[in-house]
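INTERNAL AUDIT FORM
Audit reference: QA-55
Scope: verify that the stored structure record matches its stored sequence.
Auditor: D.O.
Record contents follow.
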Amino acid sequence: MSAVLIIGASSAIGSALAQHYLQQGKQVIWLSRFAADFTDPKLCSIKAPDLNGQDEWALHQDFFSSVINTLQQHQVSVIFNCIGWLHQEGEFKLLPEKSLSQSSALLLRKTFLLNLELPVFYLQGLWPYVTKTPQLRYLQLSAKVGSISDNQLGGWYSYRSAKAALNQWIKTASIELKRSNKTAALVTLHPGTTDSLLSAPFQRNLPQGQLRTPAETAGYLAAVAQQLHSEQSGLLLNWDAKVLSF
């Protein structure tokens, strides 16, 4: 039975995805800086490196060689990357900009580090496995607000821009991937609004039914992964598998 890799598994959606697949009897590879708060005999944990935005990616070749060896051992066929960041509470509060005047270098750098650089770091590091594994499904969580054509409300400058860049990066990588692995699918995926620490400050006044539990979101995203085929590679997909515009 093929296994699933969850990158950023300690996030609300990542953890829910791990538990979803474990309940189905799948082997799950948990990749995160933080350990799971539950145990399961089919759960294999890998500790992620703690990057600070200044690391040279080449320093982590041994890490990725070890990860790829684990993926090969367990025959991983589905990869979810759930890394993402929106705001920071506490003494040094950082929130999405409501106006251009609220933009700052700190907010811009952290937003792009966690929403673009880290996903690219993992995609590049796992590329030897992605390009050689038949029928592989790689789903990178993104956001609908990264759609330029869909932007009618404005605001959230840094987050929108980082997700738009991520969508473009995955689209471009999907074109390269087709040259070496025509059976694989690489997509960005909007998970919808999920009840989590990431969305907590922005849940007020949501339309009824729009906010879902992590478990509900995991079920929808797993269904997208199951139905995903290589002809969809490069697309931005909604949580219900509908195609979203860039």
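Auditor finding: record pair retrieved intact. The mean pLDDT is 93.
Action required: none
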